[in-house]
Amino acid sequence: MIARRLSRPxxxxxxxxxxxxxxxxxxxxxxxxGTVAGTLTRRYHGLxxxxxxxxxxxxxxxxxxxxxxxxxxxxxxLGTNRWASGLHAPEGWRYxxxxxxxxxxxxxxxxxxxxxxxxxxxxxxxxxxxALALRVVTAPEPVAFALHLVVTDRDHHGxxxxxxxxxxxxxxxxxxxxxxPASARxxxxxxxxxxxxxxxxxxxxxYAEREAERGHDPLEDAVHALDARVVFPPGGGGxxxxxxxxxxxxxxxxxxAALARGAALSHPFRDPLLGELALAADQFVVTTTAGASRxxxxxxxxxxxxxxxxxxxxxxxxxxxxxxxxxxEEILRAYVPFVRDGLLPNTLPDAGAPAEYNTVDAALWxxxxxxxxxxxxxxxxxxxxxxxxxxxxxxxxxxGTRYGIGVDPAxxxxxxxxxxxxxxxxxxxxxxxVVTPRIGKPVEINALWYAAxxxxxxxxxxxxxxxxxxxxxxxxxxxxxxxxxxxxxxxCFDVIDGPNGDDPALRPNQLFAVAFAPALLGAERSRDVVxxxxxxxxxxxxxxxxxxxxxxxxxxxxxxxxxxxxAYHQGTVWPWLIGVFVRAHLNVYRDKPRARRYVxxxxxxxxxxxxxxxxxxxxxxxxxxxxGTIAQAWSVAEVIEAYxxxxx
Length: 648
What we know:
The protein is built from 17 helices and 37 strands. It is an alpha+beta fold. The chain folds into two domains: 3-263, Beta-galactosidase, Chain A, domain 5 (Distorted Sandwich); 268-645, Alpha/alpha barrel (Glycosyltransferase). The radius of gyration is 26 Å and the shape is elongated.
């Protein structure tokens, strides 16, 4: 069993319990998330956020289920709400004696006088449902529960509550259906053995503190649509299931199935940390139904969908390192039809909007993922099927494609960029201002370009195709790569041949050359790169995107969207970069125990914003507070990769 716990002192400290979050997903892009305290501190907190066009078009449908227990003449409200007035009411966090994420299932224990009650939340894999299972662990007599179902119907990024009168509820025994006016479909409810009562009143003024911190409207209204009353004897239990399809299992069965699935995913790993990371990895793998059914990767929860660059960076760690080779093959094959003019989409947006191709590196990461998969697949058709798209990407990049992407005939290096467009992973934009435009020849793009050419040559040989053009192009890149070296700093320029010349900013991008193509810099320079990055960029939670000594460095990440985007790649720490750093460190020093220490430092980050997973970014200045998305695919993937690489 994989478990991460918070004991009573943490659960009953409201400041701590409100900052600790949980997340469950269903493999379709739908999710449920909230705080250990029970408060809704983000607009994304809710019990059912359903992807109507998996994994896109996600809508907040169920805000909360407020649970009130009655035992021995006393009443205990287990929920906690923060209101616009500043008050917390009720204060259910005071009764919480423990919280655990057990095999991926968040579970609370409440001490209610002489009774102990357990609450677990799970989503069945592949179904848009959420189950809340209650169990009376011990009690001197039966415990009665009143369940107050609170719903809404809006885009998960925000929006107004429709008229409460339009949430028409019909009851049939222990089942109910609630018309969702904006989504034009019913929400199904099942509470076996319960008495259901239609309500329909408006609850106004939920206050989302984290949204206020981000400069967004923190207020939320919802509809108290339904009440359920049910009684469980000591040792007994049941619960409520809410979803877009009529429930076929009760809440306890759904939780049991989720626990079994979590155990099956984590069991193959002897190392508990890898088992926990494998559970986190599974949350990002989704089956989409937009167009033809395909497998993909959600970039991050709660606000990202499946993105090309993120998918390809994360795929080796989330799938291959977790022994899910078939999943990796499915994803790579599924992305082939999206390649246009040699480019892989940067984003596949919500609600069926057209794919966006504003990226130079996604296609290069695609080739790297193909290389990694080809090395382990047993499918003899994989390389012949994927080589044509590799060849197409290389050909388009060589002759030139969109956004100024193309090989410079003067030196064989890859250049990219045009004003107003952000093409690399450092892609923050404030209005029309690109914070880190990096027009010219970025160092990591050329390292990845070299690796792509080497891969193309190897795959060509496997397919009995002439490899000479790829080998020649790779040799030209290797001969010119020395142009990136900055003798004055003993490190690489971040970009050369840009509109303002060569950029000496100390960023982590140079590590890609040491990690993926160490021959490009040679032993001494590779060591210098690793050492300077270790000294100025490495933190206990990942690597800074800019050295603190740089006048453009921003050590804090907060405020409104404009302020946050301005700091996004100007010093903010990214956990996913630890994977690149560890690869580079191992290539230079060949010292696995030393490299492992950098990964071990991230263990505590699994208790960050979201328990049991890794978020997107941390602030550059100590104590490196977690910010950004609470669960990020490439953060989890690259820590898995780094941990595996430094094992043994």
